[in-house]
Structure formats: structure tokens, C-alpha cells
Amino acid sequence: MPTYSRIKPGHLLSERWFAKAALGAHADAYVHYLTERGYARETVECYFRSVAHFVHWNSLRGVVLREMDEAVINRFLDGHLPHCRCAPRCRRTRADVHAALRHFFAMLDQTTSQQTPGIPQAIKKELDEFNHHLVEVRGLSDSTCTIRRRHVLEFLVDRFGKSAVRISKLTPANVVHFVMRRTSGLVPGAVKSLGISLRSYFLFKASSGIPTTALIAALPRVAVWRLARLPEMLSPAEIRQLLNAFDRDSATGLRDYAIMRCLLDLGLRRTEVAHLRLDDIDWRGGMLRIHGKGNRVDVVPLPRLTGRAIAKYLQCGRPQTTRREVFVRHRPPLNAAAGPDIVRNAIRYAAERCGLQQRVRGTHIFRHTMACRMAQGGVPFKEIADMLRHRSLDTTTIYAKVDLPSLRRVALPWPGRRS
Questions:
Q1: How far apart (Å, rounded) are the C-alpha atoms in residues 418 and 415?
Q2: I need a labelling partner for 419 at 20 to 30 A (CA). Which of 38, 178, 373, 408 fits?
Q3: Catalytic residue at 11?
């Protein structure tokens, strides 16, 4: 990780109004927070000035840090910033200022355990308890927990705002009104996902003695037929086109190409790729340990092409870091793992470069592609299920629909005569 000379807040901002700002002891901490994550001096200066501007503007209105929430931030960004004349050296770009504030409040959340902006403390505590239940009791994956927390957060903020969370005061009509308003215009799958999240939360509350049977009954039952559609898959030509879209002469290109090989050759989920660690690779035995859904750990063979791509990245592309994850960030904040979003974006950007953005909108298509090719090659479904690490063989049956030669052998003749 590159080193940067220590930047003193006094060197960043000399305007008189900053002396009145209430940044106080947080000034040094914020500069250190940004610097240790690899942000360049110019970016640190930009972000520091933006936060000082925001705090100063609020201090003139008697708003202290602990009272700053999402509404205050939006008033500053949308109301004050476009017409501001009090800080000539500060950025006016909404994205830059919003990023600066996001980092600032993330720092406060880490160092002072202060309330996250926009989330009342009562709801934050409720979400923490629900998340503990999802992880420790249910054993759900990080991505599933994230989705369920987001849905429950929207529901609790909508129903309780900054008041205490009292589920016993809710009525089935409250649930129905929220779901109808929140899901207007959404596809059935998205409506079903919201219902599952709320049902999971109500069951969690029921385990603590709060009656939620009527609330669960108020949730809509959405008909989503699991086998109604054919799984999408890429052709061999499209795969070659996509593999050639990576610049393997650059460090980022080596990383993204290795990510692509993990998705394509092993059918990994993007969270599984992001959580892959150096200790999970058995180079001598040619095996790979996968941390999957439900805290499952599976061991799968490491294909030669996948192993070569990972080894090339580790030798020639991976920056110096203390992280044990295989794939790490190459841009600030440095010394951080490449999360699931980076895995997804690596594929999306490659698809855009080769003109396949309409076909490749996420990473799951590679999982379908591998399974479909195995099914069409006559591989038994038990082996496909084992490779995909499905808990139930029923989950794998959708790939029977793409095995056209086998389907022709069992299909009954069409009744009647052809005209």
C-alpha cells in the first residue's frame, strides 16, 4: 500500500469560517481515516473541506453532530450547496460532497459508536438483533442478510420513524398498506422477496414472545413458478468474446480475469468469490475450499485454467496488502477486500467492452452456463448438484429443460395429424 505524508487539517483549510466549525477532535481522525485507506492528498483535501463546510453550515443553525441525519444531509446537498457562497474553495459537485459525508459518518460509526445518519437508534438496535438472529441462528449468507435487513429497515422506518419499535402495536392493515405501496410496479419475484424478509422478521419477533401470527397472515402470497423459464446460458462464442475483453497486461485486468475464471469454471456465486481466501487454496492437491451459503464449507477440484489465472494474479497483479482474501481492491480505499459488488462490476464492465451488456447483467449466468453445459453433456444430475453445491436435488431439476436430446427421447408424440 502506498504511503502518504501526514496531512494536517490546518494545512487543508484556512478560511475563517472553519475556525467556528464544530469538527473539533474529529478533524485529525477523519484525515487519518482517509489517508490510511490510500486516498490521494488532493482527494483528502477535497473531502475534508466538504465535511468542514457541512459542519459549519449546521453549526450556524444550532444543529450538532448527533442530530445530523439523512434529512439534514439532503437539505445541505440540495438546498444550500447549489447556491452557496460561504466557502469558495469547496467543491460544488453533489457526488463528491456526498462521498465525503458518507466517509465521515462511517468513521464516526466506527470510532465513536455514534448513530448512523438516517437510522434512528431504536431501529438500529432492532436491526442489530435481527442480523444476529439471521447469522447465528439461521446461518444465512451475507447477501441474504443484507437484503432482509434492507427490507426490514424500510418497514420499520415507515411505521415507527424515530419512535420506539413496538411490533405489538402493528395491525395487519399496517402491513398490507406498506407492502402495497412499496411493491407498486415491481415484478413478482421482488414482491415475494419483500414478503420473505418481513415474514422472517415477524417469526424472529414471535420467538421472543410477541404475537405476530396475524401480521404474517397479512403478507401477500405471490405465485412465482420456479420452473417457468429456461435458464439463460452463454454460447461458446460469447464466452470467448468475454474472456478476450480483459486486459491481462494490467493488474486490475489480471484480477478480473481470475474472477471470471472462478465464476465460469467453478460456477461460484459472487459472494463465494469475494470470500475466497489464500488459505482456501491447496496448490499441491489441486483443491479449493468454498465458503458457501448457510456457513457451509465445501471442497471442490481446482481446474487448471482457474488455478493458472489465480496464480498469475497473485504473482504479478495483487498489490501488497495485509488482507488474506485472494481478491483485493486496487483503488482507494486500499488494503481492503474486493467485495461482491466489485466481483459483479468486473464482469459488467467486461461485458460492456465486448458488447454483451444485454446478455450479461450479473454473475449468475455463468453458474447457469456451467450447469447447462454439463446437463447437455450427459452428466448425471447428482454430479451437477454436487458441483453447484445444492442442498436438494430438486433445485438442480431446472437444468433438465435444457437437455434437449434427453427430452426428445421421453417426449410423447403430438396428437393429431400435421397439416
A1: 9
A2: 408
A3: no
Instruction: Determine which one of 75, 293, 312, 348 is catalytic.
Output: 293
The one-letter amino acid at 98: H
Residue 380 is predicted with a pLDDT of: 78
- Strand, helix or coil at 297? strand
Measured CA to CA, the distance from residue 329 to residue 332 in angstroms comes to: 7
Catalytic, 364? Answer yes
Q: Say if residues 168 and 210 touch (Cβ distance below 8 Å).
A: yes
Nearest to 77 by CA among 106, 49, 101, 47: 101
pLDDT attached to residue 8: 47
Active site residue 390: yes
List all residues 6 or more positions away from 212 whose beta carbon is below 8 Å from its beta carbon. 167, 202, 203, 205, 206
Tell me which of 364, 373, 389, 401 is the catalytic residue.
364
pLDDT tens readout for residues 171-195:
999 999 999 998 887 778 788 889 9
Q: What are 38's three cell numbers? A: 490510500
Active-site position among 103, 318, 367, 368 = 367
Given 26, 269, 318, 329, the catalytic residue: 269
